[in-house]
Amino acid sequence: MANSCRKLIFNIYIGFYCSAVIMPQKCICSQFTSSPIDEFNKDPEAFPFATNGEIFPWHELRLPTVVIPLHYDLLIHPNLTSLDFVASEKIEVLVRDATQFIVLHSKDLEIINASLQSEEDVRYRKPGERLTVLSYPAHQQIALLVPEKLRPDLRYSVAIDFQAKLADGFEGFYKSTYRTLGGETRTIAVTDFEPTEARMAFPCFDEPLFKANFSIKIRRESRHIALSNMPKVKTIELEGGLLEDQFETTVKMSTYLVAYIVCDFTSVSGTTSSGVKVSIYASPDKWSQTHYALEASLKLLDFYENYFDIHYPLPKLDLIAIPDFASGAMENWGLITYRETSLLFDPKTSSTSDKLWVTEVIAHELAHQWFGNLVTMEWWNDIWLNEGFATYMELISLNVTYPELQFDDNFSNTCFEVIKRDSLNSSHPISNQAKTPTQIQEMFDAVSYNKGACILNMLKDFLSEETFRKGIIHYLKKFSYRNAKNDDLWHSLSNNCLESDSTSSGFCYSDSKKTSNTLAFLRENVELKEMMATWTLQKGIPLVVVKREGRSLRLQQERFLSGVSKEDPEWGTLQERYLWHIPVTYSTSSSNVIHRHILKLKTDTLNLSEKTNWVKFNVDSNGYYIVHYEGQGWDELITLLNQNHTLLRPKDRIGLIHDAFQLVSAGRLTLDKALDLTRYLQHETSVPTLLKGLEYLELFYLMVERRNISDVTENLKHYLLQYFKPVIDTQSWVDEGSVWDRMLRSTVLKLACYLNHAPCIQKATELFSQWMESSGKLNIPTDVLKIVYSVGAQTTAGWNYLLEQYELSLSSAEKNKILYALSTSKHQEKLMKLIELGMEGKVIKTQDLAALLFAIARNPKGQQLAWNFVKENWTHLLKKFELGSFPMRMIVSGTTSHFSSKDELQEVKLFFESLKAQGSHLDIFQTILEAISKNIKWLEKNLPTLRKWLLISI
Ligand code: BES
Ligand code: ZN
């Protein structure tokens, strides 16, 4: 249903997806008639060849559903010296229809042999029958051919022996290394499977819908420990002193959540109020950095059990910091793996924003234990049901468990971040087709995470938190240990009542009784599925245009496109058939009431009950839409901000700043009007709002600086330092104050030092010298640490010293700060040295290469270097990272998307075309090209205005 609907509206996508799918080689040989596999006879040409030249009996990327796995017995023996593993498995399968082959996934594994037993064979201990194994690497599949047809409704046991090298990258069963305090390098073996890499560790039915139970055994040496999803039941000693750990059988789960690790790490543990044992593991020398994570995960696990009213179903939960990790963290059930910077907290070197990040990642991965692990999307096209929910739950859980982190104040930024992408034509619907592993990986993007979370937040605001909570509990309970799709969620949210309080419409009477009649009426009459389809099956974000005429408000909705103005010829076509059901909210000068309405049509008219001076739509920025005020609307709001900004709520002020600058990109508001709106910021009392305004001004600064537009750069620098002088000068260089006071300090001082503000440079230089003199022992306040290092890195002696300290530091929070500081050097040979070290992967780990290239590309002196490097070393980079993976996408967009000239656009276009010709294609290429075109247009249109505005402002 979802697919056909999308095809109808957005046929633009169809062409791409069809051509991007890897088409199997066609078989045109005569062998077919003599094939024993009679299933092929109908259409032999449709089947590809296996590696041995025989016909592979399956031609689709998705596995057949005639055979389904029930239980896996896995025995794994990694050798951390020879860096390989031998393994065996027994998969109990249920046959649903007669078949002569079993197809499953396997990638880069050497299959030694495979055999099959029927239930009867197992009962009478009859040995298995050896099976022929065919392999079709293009689809990462193997087929096991059985001599006699398997019979429906019977269970069989498939046994496979296999082996492989521990992988070099970050996927499957791979090796990771770390250095001890004593300088020794040690190796560990670790898994990372999502989305499609379990098949690199053991042959399996590697699709989320094939849930099964797993009984895992790991062989190891006595100097190591083994961890897996479940607690260890026992350890047995084998000949030669080898040990075998046997783990309890898991609950029913998808393959991408299986995990096992062999390492020599140590841990701290605690128990939740419901008796779950939580442990934090790290390499032995980092043990002291694990305590914050333990406190946070205990609190959060308690919270979620309570909030969902569902017990965490496993007896234990381990969180482990892995020295080499591609993404931020992975939610494997019972054994969550983290990049070190996402789990470890070092009070001496971790800043406030580091603490926020660690807490956020823990909250996110713990939420997955329900959203994702207990209830899983049917297919990767709906990955937002995992990632959007986990991102949304960060907000809900942290507001309660860590109110002092004031996480809520930052949520609007989650939405603003994705709006950048979603207001380009190359965006995609939240639920999107994904077939190949690369397409599946590309689904893990801001649209699934951020937009997913933002539309859930909008829906919660519309339904009320209690109704929404009841609905998701209903959904989680109903689909536990199963899979779900969008419609299941909408259905659960519309039928969430306990029997005692339901009404005929499905919404809970007890809820609606408490709210106003109009709101109850709105909620009870909305067709949730229909409404939410407009947000999940349709790409983009709506713009609500408001025009006030006396007491009447005329509303109009259209598709918001940044970089395209109404006068552009393509505007009309890009608007066709877009329509949302928008739950709009607004407040007015005459009362504190939040008014609500659902805008389902293109245009609508509302009547105000009283005369008002101003109207502000999208209360608290809870809605996923941009608002434009026609006529006097913006002027009224600017006047209001200047007179008394506190009459609007902080989140409304942040929304106004955001929307104003977005409207500039779409040619709906002039830049000077948006800049005028920021003039009140001198008096702004809310830090997140102030930071938002500053962010735009800084963005413009970086844009003109990179393009060497020196007059505007100088004047903007002057303006920033003069205008924000009061706030810069009042900052102390001490870790003190609330979270937002501390964030303000980091941001403002970083900007001031970047702009060469003498007092800032002087203080940072002083601290840096003291730190060097103390041989790195002096504790610098954590929130200014990165700034001090960056100023220090500007001299050769400082830079060299920082690089030495980088090698020695045991805190990855500190290492990140040093690496950033090193990347701000103005000397190209130093930047090149960093890239070389990153490519070598010893001093600077490969996992940090993407962030390094990103940082160098943001340095005006490094942008060309980073870009040239990526172009010239694409194949080397592809050997390190998968094409669609987070790091690779970060490298490509990080080194290109800030460009703003026609020549640069042309260069990037040519490069992407050459990649496409080599078979490397990513969806984000189009997004990047669109982003660059948008930058070019922005500068063409707004540079003269910016120049003029600065002249009258300084
Ligand atoms: N499930 C993801 C990990 C993942 C990412 C797997 C991409 C496959 C492809 C995990 O829950 C996640 O979302 N991690 C985030 C951190 C989170 C706090 C946003 C990450 O890795 O950045
Ligand atoms: Zn996630």
From TrEMBL:
<keyword id="KW-0862">Zinc</keyword>
<keyword id="KW-0031">Aminopeptidase</keyword>
<dbReference type="GO" id="GO:0005615">
    <property type="term" value="C:extracellular space"/>
</dbReference>
<dbReference type="GO" id="GO:0006508">
    <property type="term" value="P:proteolysis"/>
</dbReference>
<feature type="binding site">
    <location>
        <position position="364"/>
    </location>
    <ligand>
        <name>Zn(2+)</name>
    </ligand>
</feature>
<dbReference type="InterPro" id="IPR001930">
    <property type="entry name" value="Peptidase_M1"/>
</dbReference>
<keyword id="KW-1064">Adaptive immunity</keyword>
<dbReference type="Pfam" id="PF17900">
    <property type="entry name" value="Peptidase_M1_N"/>
</dbReference>
<dbReference type="GO" id="GO:0008270">
    <property type="term" value="F:zinc ion binding"/>
</dbReference>
<keyword id="KW-1015">Disulfide bond</keyword>
<keyword id="KW-0472">Membrane</keyword>
<dbReference type="InterPro" id="IPR024571">
    <property type="entry name" value="ERAP1-like_C_dom"/>
</dbReference>
<dbReference type="InterPro" id="IPR014782">
    <property type="entry name" value="Peptidase_M1_dom"/>
</dbReference>
<dbReference type="Pfam" id="PF01433">
    <property type="entry name" value="Peptidase_M1"/>
</dbReference>
<dbReference type="GO" id="GO:0005789">
    <property type="term" value="C:endoplasmic reticulum membrane"/>
</dbReference>
<feature type="domain" description="Peptidase M1 membrane alanine aminopeptidase">
    <location>
        <begin position="292"/>
        <end position="496"/>
    </location>
</feature>
<feature type="domain" description="Aminopeptidase N-like N-terminal">
    <location>
        <begin position="69"/>
        <end position="257"/>
    </location>
</feature>
<keyword id="KW-0256">Endoplasmic reticulum</keyword>
<dbReference type="InterPro" id="IPR034016">
    <property type="entry name" value="M1_APN-typ"/>
</dbReference>
<dbReference type="GO" id="GO:0042277">
    <property type="term" value="F:peptide binding"/>
</dbReference>
<dbReference type="InterPro" id="IPR050344">
    <property type="entry name" value="Peptidase_M1_aminopeptidases"/>
</dbReference>
<dbReference type="InterPro" id="IPR042097">
    <property type="entry name" value="Aminopeptidase_N-like_N_sf"/>
</dbReference>
<comment type="similarity">
    <text>Belongs to the peptidase M1 family.</text>
</comment>
<comment type="subunit">
    <text>Heterodimer with ERAP1.</text>
</comment>
<feature type="domain" description="ERAP1-like C-terminal">
    <location>
        <begin position="614"/>
        <end position="932"/>
    </location>
</feature>
<dbReference type="GO" id="GO:0002250">
    <property type="term" value="P:adaptive immune response"/>
</dbReference>
<dbReference type="InterPro" id="IPR027268">
    <property type="entry name" value="Peptidase_M4/M1_CTD_sf"/>
</dbReference>
<protein>
    <recommendedName>
        <fullName>Aminopeptidase</fullName>
        <ecNumber>3.4.11.-</ecNumber>
    </recommendedName>
</protein>
<keyword id="KW-0812">Transmembrane</keyword>
<keyword id="KW-0479">Metal-binding</keyword>
<keyword id="KW-0645">Protease</keyword>
<keyword id="KW-0735">Signal-anchor</keyword>
<dbReference type="Pfam" id="PF11838">
    <property type="entry name" value="ERAP1_C"/>
</dbReference>
<keyword id="KW-0391">Immunity</keyword>
<dbReference type="InterPro" id="IPR045357">
    <property type="entry name" value="Aminopeptidase_N-like_N"/>
</dbReference>
<keyword id="KW-0325">Glycoprotein</keyword>
<dbReference type="GO" id="GO:0070006">
    <property type="term" value="F:metalloaminopeptidase activity"/>
</dbReference>
<keyword id="KW-0378">Hydrolase</keyword>
<keyword id="KW-1133">Transmembrane helix</keyword>
<feature type="binding site">
    <location>
        <position position="368"/>
    </location>
    <ligand>
        <name>Zn(2+)</name>
    </ligand>
</feature>
<feature type="binding site">
    <location>
        <position position="387"/>
    </location>
    <ligand>
        <name>Zn(2+)</name>
    </ligand>
</feature>
<keyword id="KW-0482">Metalloprotease</keyword>
